[in-house]
Amino acid sequence: MSRVHRAIALVAMSTLALTACGPSDDSAGGGSEVPTATPTTSTSPSAPAQPPKPTPPTKPPTTTPSTDPDYNVFPCSTYDVTFTASLAEPTTSSYLLKITNKSAKPCRVLGHPIVTFGDLDGHATERGTAPGIEEAIRLAPGQSAYAGLMGGPKDTKSKTVSSITMTMNTESDLKQVPLKAATPHLNVSDANSVTAWMNDAEDALSL
């Protein structure tokens, strides 16, 4: 074989060897599959959040007015009444005390009147018992209540006064202006006493 023919044969064999060892069409991608892209879902922009509605203010509970007619009736003081004293029994020097509601609203008459004698110390003692606050006299405007002031016996220690002063029992520390009434020749001793306020003048003097 000539050199020319040998060279051609070597070239042909080399070409065949390269063709056999080369990658096939099926493995051109290195044997790995190309991943399939997943389509993305387009989302529309969400609506802006609405601010919460303000809570309307709640109304305070309504208070049902009391049906008790005496709910707002307070004790009578000297600011609510006028005061007089009239001689009821000359021999015993006893006087009928009278108060009249001069205000525009009712008030409640409590206990006994507090009676002092002119410039003398002390006051008349309480005679009998007074009704409780729930049973006390309800004095409407223009109405009157009465109490009996009993005179004391004349002796060497008794004194005579021409006037008395009176304040009301209010069961409180309310400051009052004492009311004054003329009581000519009233004999004052340790025996002076005063009844509770009553609706009837005769009852006040008979106790």
Automatic annotation (TrEMBL):
<feature type="domain" description="DUF4232">
    <location>
        <begin position="76"/>
        <end position="197"/>
    </location>
</feature>
<protein>
    <submittedName>
        <fullName>DUF4232 domain-containing protein</fullName>
    </submittedName>
</protein>
<feature type="compositionally biased region" description="Low complexity">
    <location>
        <begin position="35"/>
        <end position="47"/>
    </location>
</feature>
<feature type="compositionally biased region" description="Pro residues">
    <location>
        <begin position="48"/>
        <end position="63"/>
    </location>
</feature>
<dbReference type="InterPro" id="IPR025326">
    <property type="entry name" value="DUF4232"/>
</dbReference>
<feature type="region of interest" description="Disordered">
    <location>
        <begin position="23"/>
        <end position="71"/>
    </location>
</feature>
<keyword id="KW-0732">Signal</keyword>
<dbReference type="Pfam" id="PF14016">
    <property type="entry name" value="DUF4232"/>
</dbReference>
<feature type="signal peptide">
    <location>
        <begin position="1"/>
        <end position="19"/>
    </location>
</feature>
